[in-house]
Amino acid sequence: MGSLAILQEEWAKHRRRLELESRVLVVEDDEAARQELENLLFRQHISARTVAKPETAMEMLASKSYSVAMVSEGLTGLGGLYLVRQIRMQHPAVDAIVYGTEASPDLITKAFDLHLLDVLPRPLPDLEAFGQAMQDALRRNVERRMRMHVLTALRANLERLASDERLRTTRALERRLSAFKNSLGPFIRVLVVEQEESDLRLLSELLLLAGLHVETAADLDAALAQATTGVVHLLAVNVELAAARLAEVMARLQRDSPLCELMLVSRNPSIEQVRAALAAGVAAYLAWPPLSHDVVVRRVQEVLRRSRRDRLMDNLLAELFQETNRGMGATDTDAAFERFRELIGLQRVLTTPEMPTERAGAVAAVDYLDSVLDSLLSPDEELVITYEVPAVGSGLAEAGEGSERRAHFRVLESQFIRYRPKPAVASTLALLGDLSEGGLFIRTAELLLPGTLVEVDFNVDLEGQGYLIRCRAQVAWVARDNKQSPLGPGFGVKFLDTPPDVLALLQRIVAVRLKAEGGSTPAS
User: Fold this and answer.
1) Which of 40, 282, 424, 518 is close enough to 277 for a disulfide, judged by CB 3.0 to 4.6 Å?
2) Are 333 and 325 in contact (CB under 8 A)?
3) What is the percent of the chain where pLDDT is above 90?
């Protein structure tokens, strides 16, 4: 028991340290607004730094430790939401708050996709309300960072067990987590509230055609009863809920139906409703009626995929905690587990099903945990956020500036390419536009800032032989529409430190393609 108590005390100290060291970076290009925010944050005793330009903000985040970025939605040029997306991709530990905006459907959709901590109106709330909002946001950021800290600590603790106990613990973990993952199965069950005045019948039909299991309920109370007595993965509701009622609904789902997420469907939500939904942990918002049927299906499928991954991660933490504590000889594990959940804000933990018969052999503890994490974050389960990019202003280089400065022959290559901005974890799938020995063009609406470092990989067939090409690159120029590039929106990258064998292969590809097209070949 002593070892467990010491471990939890260390976690509690780490959490207090994170709380004390929490810092806010404010990005606002209006001087008066910056002064107002500096004053409010100072009066709330919150450590903060303000900057005017998105480029400065990215430099600050790369060089110093910040917990939350507070971004003005109306930033000149790219806009605040675009900057938030860049922050989340390149600095995953940093959460974001957007302020100075109205609750448009486009904004709200992105607020949930980007996992914003809050959306503050302008003018800002009074000092007390502002302080409460900031404290809630910082608390949720601390809980998210605590989860990763605890996961690292538990993995290290598992390795310190005696070899026979480590073997037993690892086998138990493998059986319990495998049984849990198998018991989850695919997340495909959706429950839609279809009141008499509702027009959500179309939603039910679209999801049914997409291969999901769809049921309907006449009202919210009936839906909650149905969700708590059966297996439901997503509850779609178009009822306007006050903040207190929304919190009550979410608490009931988390307690009685922990597999179920809530998606709000609304025509004209207020900023207050959006803030309440973000604070309560609502999974998604869907503007109604939809502009595209495909967008509706894709968004629902993304929510279901993300929910399944989150449930796996929650139970990985829970089972790892329980099994390592048993290996340490801890008693009174129930009380310890409740404290553990409180420390990291763990709300949804499911009961692991009966363990299958013990399998012969076992893998090394850390190797096994790494394989579990890899499976949770595998490409077929990773979530890629997509949405239309706002009009680009002076923050991006124009296509004419970058596209005309080409030192190499280019050939068209219409195929898939994966790119990963550093230091993001997930890759994004897009289309390759053209290719040269010095760089390539990626066709996508998800534009990156010039200067962003990326890793790209794509397959090329050359003279009957397939090749996988991986390169480090940097965004050189950006095109937001067909006027700036005949290939449509996207960005051009230049290769960095290309290995000689890869460079030779790229030169061969270009030469063969040009010859096949009847054009002149580059000089050897």
Assistant:
1) 282
2) yes
3) 22
> Residue 413, Cα to own-chain centre: how many angstroms?
30
Task: Please give the Cα distance from 35 to 18 (Å, whole number).
Answer: 26
C-alpha 220/C-alpha 89 separation (Å) is 36
pLDDT in tens, 57-73: 988 998 888 999 999 98
φ, ψ of residue 86 in degrees (nearest 5): -65, -40
Query: How far is it, in rounded angstroms, from Cα 396 to Cα 72?
Result: 18
Q: Are 317 and 346 in contact (CB under 8 A)?
A: yes
Closest to 101 in 3D by CA, of 118, 113, 85, 117: 118
Structure tokens at 261: 């997420």
CB distance 263 to 300 below 8 Å? yes
| CB within 8 Å of 108: residues ≥ 6 apart | 119, 269, 274, 285, 287
Q: Specify the pLDDT at position 404.
A: 36
Torsion sign (Cα): 281, 283, 289, 291? positive
Residue 80 CA: distances (Å) to CA of 26, 71, 86, 120, 198: 11, 6, 10, 13, 34
Question: In this structure, are strands 453-462 and 213-217 parallel, antiparallel, or unpaired?
Answer: unpaired
Token pair for 4:
């467990």
